[in-house]
Design a protein that fits this description.
CATH architecture of the largest domain: 3-Layer(aba) Sandwich
Order of helices and strands: EEHHEHEHEHEHEEEHEHEHHHEE
Number of helices: 11
Number of domains: 2
Number of strands: 13
CATH class of the largest domain: Alpha Beta
Low-confidence stretches: none
Strand content: 15-25%
Bound molecules: acetyl coenzyme *A
Structural class: alpha/beta
Distance between the termini: 22 Å
Length: about 325
């Protein structure tokens, strides 16, 4: 078999129509538009209604990605749904998506890597495509984080939003597609960002609910420093692995967690602001969905075209981090 790389053939994204603005949050907790804007860059975030759930947005994004790639659902071999907020514990959201999209020949699964989930997903399927084990994969980052946000905790509730982004991956010539990719984790930082309730360790009891243990808890300030260092270092590593410099990269798309984190990563990498994409003002932090949403927006805006060299990098709870270098 001739040598192939795995590349992105089509993308799509979707999010709820509901919007939560900084002005709305001012009425809910002791915060201000000024604090949120200067500390995070966020102006609004999309928020699912009570009857909306993760797979609905994943399916919409997946359908668009399939149309864009002009690949039949029947040709998809695996669906990887990167999510921290699945529809339910069993079955996986990946299986729900498989059914709804009619991907009748596909395996379906969920991947838990918080905000790094999309990069974890494409890293996993990249080697499956490159070695010929599968031909086409659908990787979706999808989250309804606002159902896990404690709207009495001002330090987290202003940050998160909902949405989904999807990519169809398949074989491309060796000079295109994923040129280098790397993922890492460090479980010593478990309690920097976690939601301990509801699992096998603490279960779901009156006590866990009263203590609000099912909601996200975060030590934002400490995470900030680790996030900047991890994303910058792993990006430099994969650039070296691919034999390119940051000046060769046309566009950097970091996980959209905080504008100050994005600016600090760009500065450490020595990349000018015009080469760095940010949509944090409109979406907030959508965890595993943030990078594929941003990438698809860049495709729609013409910032990503045939030949564009894109560096994506993410950091999330776990902690997890990763980076991929992709030639479109
Ligand atoms: N409104 C007003 N004041 C606030 C708010 C708010 N919404 N939130 C916190 N404050 C206050 C704090 O109480 C504190 O007050 P004090 O000095 O009187 O104690 C003060 O603001 C400063 O708090 P810090 O936490 O030091 O603020 P910081 O500048 O670090 O910003 C933030 C907080 C935005 C959370 C930032 O640390 C951050 O973005 N961290 C990284 C988050 C991240 O990357 N997470 C991982 C990825 S997400 C995932 O995996 C799902």
């Amino acid at each position: 078999m001739s040598k192939v790389n795995a590349g992105i053939l089509g993308m799509g994204h979707a999010y709820p129509s509901g919007i939560l603005t900084n002005a709305d949050l001012e009425k809910m907790v002791d915060t201000s538009d000024e604090w949120i804007t200067t500390r995070t860059g966020i102006k609004q975030r999309h928020k699912a209604d009570a009857d909306e759930y993760t797979s609905q947005f994943a399916v919409k994004a997946g359908k668009k990605a399939l149309q864009c790639a002009q690949i039949s659902p029947k040709d998809i071999d695996i669906i990887v749904c990167a999510t921290t907020t699945p529809d339910q514990i069993l079955p996986s959201t990946g299986c729900i998506i498989q059914r709804e999209l009619g991907c009748e020949n596909a395996a379906g699964m969920d991947l838990f890597a918080a905000c790094s989930g999309f990069i974890y997903g494409i890293t996993m399927v990249e080697s499956m495509i490159r070695t010929g084990q599968i031909r086409y994969a659908l990787v979706i980052g999808a989250e309804v984080l606002t159902k896990y946000v404690d709207y009495t905790d001002r330090s987290t509730c202003v940050l998160f939003g909902d949405g989904a982004g999807a990519a169809v991956l398949g074989p491309v010539p060796p000079d295109k597609g994923i040129l280098a990719t790397k993922i890492r984790s460090d479980g010593r930082y478990e309690e920097q960002l976690y939601a301990p309730g509801g699992g096998t360790r603490y279960g779901t009891t009156h006590e866990t609910i009263e203590k609000r243990m099912h909601y996200f808890k975060m030590k934002g300030n400490e995470l900030f420093k680790i996030a900047v260092r991890s994303m910058a270092d792993i990006s430099a590593e994969i650039l070296e692995k691919a034999g390119v410099t940051i000046d060769d990269v046309d566009l950097v798309i970091p996980h959209q967690a905080n504008q100050r984190i994005t600016d600090a990563v760009a500065q450490r990498l020595g990349v000018p602001p015009e080469k760095v994409y940010s949509n944090i003002a409109y979406h907030g932090n959508t965890s595993s969905a943030s990078i594929p949403i941003a990438m698809d927006e860049c495709i729609e805006m013409g910032k990503i075209k045939d030949g564009t060299l894109v560096l994506i990098t993410a950091f999330g709870g776990g902690v997890t981090w990763g980076a991929s270098l992709i030639r479109f």
